Amino acid sequence: MPNTKAFRIGYAIIILLVIVLLSSKVEFIFRPVEIIFTTLFFPFLIGGVIFYLLRPIVYYLDRHKVPKVLSILIIYLLFIGLGTLLVFLLGPQLQSQFKSLINNAPQIVDSLKDKVNSLKQNEWFSRFQQNDYITIDSLTSKASDYAKGFAGNIGTKISSLIGIITSVATVIVTVPFIVFYLLKDSEGLGNRVENFLPYLKAAEAKRILKDMDEALSSYIQGQATAAFLVGVMMYIGYSIIGLDYSLILAIVAMITNIIPFLGAFIAFIPAIIIGLIMSPLMALKVAIVVIVVQQIDGNVTSPLIMGRKLDVHPLTVILILLVAGNMGGFLGMILAVPFYALLKVIVSHTYRLYQLNKEKDRNGIQIVD
After folding, report:
1. Could you tell me the pLDDT band of residue 288, with boundaries at 50, 70 and 90?
2. Residue of 158, 324, 350, 356 with fewest CB within 10 Å of its CB?
3. What pTM value is reported for the model?
4. 208 touches 196 (CB < 8 A)
5. CA angle (125, 127, 130) in 5-degree steps
């Protein structure tokens, strides 16, 4: 058997996979780990996002001699006040639109089906119908059945609704405490590294952690700011043209805009459907609003906010999103790009250390293992 370094690494990977496979057969080992992970994942995910959004404010107040604990409490009170104000201003409208959308979902799908049936008389649609794999009838029928089933099953899934409410309540209760301690002890991780590693290794580890932190911070803060501005511009544009469910569609656009490139197309689909149901002219107005907002976002707001801090090629982002969407759905698409940015930092530093050690070994000097 070969005894080269590549084969030794291969042997180690095979042994590790065999250990994981054998351990997975013993359910009582991995089941608690799975429960712990699924329980803590969303609170820490949401808490981490909020932490990166609030940390610049805490640092700003800290530079002005405001104690960190006091600054965190001030930020909490400020956001509670802003949240209460938003609930009073937008809550009734959002509730009314959401209730109307749920009640009218079957009628919306039926209206869309009628619109499509009328368009089927067009010669282009007739040619499209020659495709046996995808037909307008099958698509509209599936959409209609899904919408009617969704609307009809809302009242029969009380237990699932209670479970969802319980999970959301748990997140709401725990996230503020997670964010508080993350903000309070945000500078402690790098210092703790020095207690466990030799000086040279600790210095490199702190450098890697710093670069990972900067990459994640710039991405989260930039995407959140850009998404918020897109949501505001969409709401203003939809309100001007008189589009139904303008607030809901603007919130959808804000949420999906977190996904680079593809988010805009995802948000465009429900908006154009509502516009088409109202009138072809409204659908055209919706398309114009979406194009104008995306042009502003792509050429003005996102470049100013995001810049090129992540230095990830757009084609790479699209490929990552396609793979992540297939593997993890919507959540996978949201997490794919920041995860890739962190992985890129780790790989680049690992390769740099490998090259540095290789060069030192050539000169007869050994540093970091």
Report:
1. very high
2. 158
3. 0.72
4. no
5. 110
